[in-house]
Amino acid sequence: MALPKFIITMDGVFRLGMVNQHKDLLKPGDQCIGGGYYHFDYTTNRILLDRESYDFGRPKWHLLDTLKVPSVYRGLRLIYTYDDGFHDDFNVSEELDIEYYD
């Protein structure tokens, strides 16, 4: 069953889509450094990210300085929620440089 999932690659690419498995978002040569699930919150102009990929684990944000985001999502803030009682939410849009691509 296809679900709204995202991944990040070692090259800093943020990719999301309705897929069965996180690996379905990979392109040849990609090295995945984590993923999870997403939903759009249009009221607050955010893409809310949470949970983790069964195969790749939680996103390893600390490995990135810049996140490359599809330009169609320009204007939406990215927030990752750990939901584990230990970590605060990670405001991706403030913590990383965002670079948009087509």
How is this structure best summarized?
The protein has one helix at 92-95, and strands at 3-9, 14-19, 32-41, 46-50, 66-70, 77-81, 90-91, 97-101. With 102 residues, the protein is mostly beta strands. Strand 6 and strand 7 (90-91) form a beta hairpin.
Explain the layout of strands and helices.
Elements: E1 3-9, E2 14-19, E3 32-41, E4 46-50, E5 66-70, E6 77-81, E7 90-91, H1 92-95, E8 97-101
Parallel strand pairs: 4-6, 5-8
Antiparallel strand pairs: 1-2, 1-3, 3-4, 6-7
Describe the structure.
- With 102 residues, the protein is mainly β.
- 4% of the residues lie in helices and 44% in strands.
- The protein is built from 1 helix and 8 strands.
- The longest helix is centred in the C-terminal third of the chain and has 4 residues, at 92-95.
- The protein is globular and about 30 Å long.
- 25% of the residues are buried.
Report the order of strands and helices: EEEEEEEHE
Question: What's the alpha carbon Rg, rounded to whole Å?
Answer: 13 Å
Strand order of the largest sheet: 2-1-3-4-6-7
Write down the overall mean pLDDT: 96
Report the sheet-strand fraction: 35-45%
Oligomerization: single chain
N- to C-terminal separation? Answer: 28 Å
Main β-sheet description: 6 strands, mixed
Helix count equals 1
Low-confidence stretches: none
General shape: globular
Assign the structural class, choosing from mainly alpha, mainly beta, alpha/beta, alpha+beta, or little secondary structure: mainly beta
Helical percent range? under 10%
Let me know the number of strands.
8
